[in-house]
User: Which sequence fits this backbone?
């Protein structure tokens, strides 16, 4: 069902749609997908999407927010996925996020907000991860210029990563960006990232 952006923001309790779109697709019932590839969805539509999942979203495989796609996805309640790859799309969850395998967010223009918190929030990383459950997380904190690494909820340092992630770093390139790109490759290939 289509609703106005103002109504979607009212339901969500924050302003994400107003000013970006006139209408938002509202799914009032819980939504389940095998895979959720934002780029493929937008190519099929021939446009970006603005969607409010009003009763949670479950993805049995990967939720991939893609690069160069500026859609807005908002979830009321719980977002569940096997793997979550952040990208240039906006993903806002007013409840909690449960990721079965891993969460990756590299150098993108997108926003990932859970319960009003982002990785760059002043409240710190622990506040965000109190609402995000995943065995492995890699997020780029753009404000602080650092990788945020978690294993089973506990903070990890770059020195605890596997050797291929740290090998031959270019001194003229920001190391967190290169390491982040390598970690994404390892995660997608099903390889461990922590030594």
Assistant:
């Amino acid at each position: 069902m289509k609703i106005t952006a103002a109504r979607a923001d009212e339901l969500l309790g924050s302003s994400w749609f107003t000013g970006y779109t006139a209408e938002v697709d509202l799914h009032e019932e819980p939504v389940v997908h095998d895979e959720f590839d934002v780029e493929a969805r937008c190519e099929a539509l021939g446009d970006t999407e603005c969607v409010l999942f009003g009763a949670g979203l479950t993805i049995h495989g990967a939720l991939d927010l893609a690069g160069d796609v500026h859609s807005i996805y908002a979830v009321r309640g719980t977002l569940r996925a096997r793997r979550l790859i952040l990208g240039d799309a906006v993903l806002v969850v007013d409840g909690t996020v449960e990721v079965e395998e891993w969460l990756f967010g590299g150098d993108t223009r997108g926003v990932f907000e859970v319960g009003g918190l982002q990785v760059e929030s002043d409240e710190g990383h622990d506040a965000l991860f109190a609402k995000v459950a995943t065995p492995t997380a890699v997020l780029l904190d753009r404000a602080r210029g650092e990788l945020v690494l978690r294993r089973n909820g506990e903070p990890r340092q770059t020195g605890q990563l596997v050797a291929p992630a740290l090998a031959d770093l270019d001194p003229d390139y920001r190391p967190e960006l290169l390491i982040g790109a390598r970690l994404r490759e390892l995660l997608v290939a099903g390889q461990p990232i922590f030594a």
Notes: Residues 5 and 18 are 5 Å apart (CA to CA). The mean pLDDT is 95. The two ends are 48 Å apart (CA to CA). The longest strand covers residues 96-105.
